[in-house]
Specification:
The longest helix has about 35 residues, at about 65-105. By secondary structure, the chain is mostly helical. The protein contains twelve helices and no strands. Helix 7 packs antiparallel against helix 8. The radius of gyration is 22 Å and the shape is elongated. The model is unreliable at about 275-279 (pLDDT under 50). It has one domain (about 1-35, about 60-275): MetI-like fold, CATH 1.10.3720.
Amino acid sequence: MKDFWTHFRKNRGAVAGLFILTAVTACALLAPVLMPGSPWAMVQRPFLPPMTLSGFPLGTDALGRDVLAGLLHGAKVSLLVGLVSTAVALVIGIPIGAFAGYYGGAVDDALMRLTEFFQTIPSFALAIVLLAIFQPTLTYVILAIAIVSWPPVARLVRGEALSLRHREFVEAAVLSGLTHRQIILRQVLPNALPPIIVLASLMVATAILLESSLSFLGLGDPNVMSWGYMIGAARTVIRTAWWLSFIPGIAILLTVLSLNLIGEGLNDALNPRLRRKAP
């Protein structure tokens, strides 16, 4: 762990990304304390510009709701969707990729054909169809994003399993009498963990963008405040009240950028080849 942090700190962009993500997470966790009221409450006149009144530093939207309150409470929803949907996608994709790569043959063909079937459908279009079939609640939004996000995980894990199943330590585990399931859990997956961690950090960023896009189109949960909903609600007044779209857009930009920078830093710290090239 000490060696990991040593290499991670060398990437200044990754450290900056970690700082930004920590600040966003703190805002999300402290939103009920910093803004105890409901983000849906109408508290002032509509279209109050930023920095006009001391109690409303980011102004108000078309219905007189506090933009800062919506921003803080929306951070919690966006991060929750990104983290949970990524976790569900990993739960689906890792076993499929591990079994396909380790067993090979007919198992590999069947599981990869299933993966290719989901990859042939555009992910955003599939998410729209799923939410059109089910109710656009937060649970179904997370499930829809997870369903369209697991194929890259399965392909990555399959590739790692294919390269690891003929290694000496795996053959030694077979000779020691371990079952195939034990070998996958104890030998294959732990050695495939670094690229999975890097991919997961990037998937969280993609999930946040996907949730924002769905909410922009009105397919998000109408009972929760999110950054995508804020942008979608302000799209009709973008010329007269530009800040209503600009502020949550900047929040999405910084969060996604921080996750991508962290993913790059994780790749540098966990990839031994990049470590050897480092000065």
